[in-house]
From TrEMBL, chains A, B:
UniProt entry keywords in alphabetical sequence: DNA-binding, Membrane, Transcription, Transcription regulation, Transmembrane, Transmembrane helix
Pfam families linked: LacI, Peripla_BP_3
SUPFAM superfamilies linked: lambda repressor-like DNA-binding domains, Periplasmic binding protein-like I
Domain HTH lacI-type: 10-64
CDD domains assigned to the protein according to its UniProt record, in alphabetical order: HTH_LacI (cd01392), PBP1_LacI_sugar_binding-like (cd06267)
Annotated protein name in UniProt: LacI family transcriptional regulator
Entry keyword Transmembrane: yes
Regions that span the bilayer: 118-140
Annotated GO MF terms: DNA-binding transcription factor activity; transcription cis-regulatory region binding
Length: 352, 352
DNA sequence: TTGTATGCGTTATCAC
DNA sequence: GTGATAACGCATACAA
């Protein structure tokens, strides 16, 4: 027993012998080099197919200097958005010769050492970083040193670093405006953690909509959450423990998860949604439409984001290889969509 | 520009020169070979550390014949259980020198060619197959040919193939028994797709509990689902379109997703849960406790399953390397737990 | 167009 | 214990 599988693996040498050509020719055929006699190519291809030969990826990598592996640096997959993003990633990858090396990391601490190791091994030829948080700065350094990199979402990334995301300000603006148009005047906002740019941007959009409607954002209606369900519960408890006339008539949560927390508490306290309080989320996680009531929320095209990001990354790899590295800055902003469902409606005092 | 990063990568050769030893010695130090002079080892380690040298993974792989990559073959990550499993996988991996190559595949068709390609590239030194479905048979073949393989859940796998899963029969039995003890006599079952072994096993457990209670399973109360939310909706519509006295007083769904569908329809038709109908699911997906009402369900330790599976796989790789491949069959059955929440209660006719 | 020879960075097999 | 040197399987510059 020598490797994983018992029967000795075929090498390019074997195919060369079997087809009566040299290793070089087989290699050329495998790499679609144009300069090879059609009849020879045919013969080689036949033997390759006949014996089911597949070139050893490790050797290819060593000889060519670049692997067909793409690193994906991501938060734990249990974050609701990540599987959706990965679905898009997988979809694009499936039609490509690349595979995914998944670096699932908890980004709480600064794993810059981990990152160094990953990249120094020269195991992946490019990196897709999903919400890299504090690791961003290290990545951007490496990017400027030549690392093919695409970032998804949120960061205050240097303009040159290719990234895909959404327009958080406008999306939040649209959501808030929707509530205003329903007649709401007291709209609370549960904000995400401040070290996320998107938290600040969504808050901006919220404020802008309010101010446009002649409403000064009320600090008492701004709650600080952490994007987790529990934080939504805490914020809801804070709000609903106040005298009834101090309640908002609507709550705009910076993500769906915190909105779930609000719904939990509302249920427990007998606060009816949307009759007593309207609720709007952000993200449109998979289950948000199955909640009771179904959650009105801003849909993020996560799957598309993953898809486009990988597409971008692979294009970069190709163009890098053909030496025509372009210098323009790439920032894909994908459109979001407000999904109006049952958790929102006119304020109670406008109900007939 | 020659690679990803501009400055030329250090090689083992460079370190050897800098430390005044030969490549071989550096290699020995890197691989923790005992036979090397402590003072030399010290010197080599210092230069390695000083220059931040990290051996090239590709070259190591080619020379040694085995990579530090583990393949994970999995259904789309949007299946609710998968991220949970992957969390356990990632947790174990993080403490190991291995990395994960994620093969996210839709298992609808028989991608045995994909599998062949994956394995022939000899890029991964072991494979964790999560719910491989129809691909199983190919995998077991490869296993017997020497592929280090661990399977998670469900399959009718040959006894020799190491796998981790749960006891579906007993878990379903427990859930059904719980409903019986509440006083239910007409308990419907929404079954999963029949080509999943777990669907059949859960049905078995359901039947056994019923029969033990002297109840013959009623074919009219057996609905065929597909594990998707929509199928749960269809089944619920079927049930609730019957005359009220033909309704079940409880529904045991073979997974949580289908239970969500039931809740959707119940909400729409004004059927109260649990007052009119009790509902019990299976899986305990992350959001099941946040539904209204929170779903009573059988908790599967998905994260543990992923953790244990990788642990098993890495142990196999180690023992394979030291030629002591054991021949006993390994089947880890992890315990499940019935989580009783608000979606279940006594039948309406027993309510005070 | 095709074959030969060398290199990729490491491990493993020898002698010493 | 240590250092040359031959694999590992493929890509590629160079020669033919």
């Amino acid at each position: 027993m020598q490797g994983s599988n018992t029967q000795r693996k075929l090498t390019i040498q074997d195919i060369a012998r079997l087809a009566g050509v040299s290793k070089a020719t087989v290699s050329r055929v495998l790499n679609h080099r144009p300069s090879v006699n059609p009849s020879l190519r045919e013969r080689v291809l036949r033997t390759i197919h006949e014996y089911g030969f597949i070139p050893n990826a490790t050797a290819t990598g060593l000889a060519s200097g670049h692997t067909r592996l793409l690193g994906v640096l991501a938060p734990p997959l249990t974050w609701p958005a990540i599987p959706e993003i990965m679905r898009g990633v997988a979809e694009y990858i499936e039609g490509s010769p690349y595979e995914i090396v998944l670096y699932s990391i908890s980004f709480e601490r600064n794993h810059s050492d981990v990152l160094d190791r990953i990249l120094s091994m020269s195991m992946v030829s490019g990196l897709l970083a999903i919400l890299p948080g504090g690791l961003g700065r290290y990545l951007y350094q490496r990017f400027h040193l030549g690392l093919p990199l695409v970032v998804i979402d949120d960061q205050k990334v240097p303009a040159q670093v290719p990234r895909v995301g959404i327009d958080n300000v406008n999306s939040a603006y649209t959501a808030t405006r929707y509530l205003l148009e329903l007649g709401h005047r007291r709209i609370a906002h549960i904000q995400g953690p401040l070290h996320y740019l998107c938290s600040q941007e969504r808050y901006q959009g919220y404020c802008r909509a309010l101010e446009e409607a002649g409403i000064t954002p009320d600090p008492n209606l701004l709650l600080q959450g952490s994007f987790e369900v529990e934080s939504g519960q805490r914020c809801a408890e804070t709000l609903f423990s106040r005298p009834r006339n101090a309640w908002p008539t609507a709550i705009f949560s910076a993500n769906d998860q915190m909105a779930y927390g609000v719904m939990d508490v509302a249920e427990r306290l007998g606060v009816r949604i949307p009759e007593d309080v309207s609720l709007v989320g952000f993200d449109d996680n998979m289950l948000s439409s199955h909640l009771r009531p179904p959650l009105t929320t801003v849909h993020q095209p996560f799957s598309d984001m993953g898809f486009k990001a990988v597409e971008l990354l692979l294009n970069m790899l190709d163009s890098q290889h053909s030496k025509q590295q372009e210098e323009c800055s790439i920032h894909l902003q994908l459109p979001t969509q407000l999904c109006i469902r049952k958790s929102s409606g006119p304020p109670y005092y406008l109900l007939s």
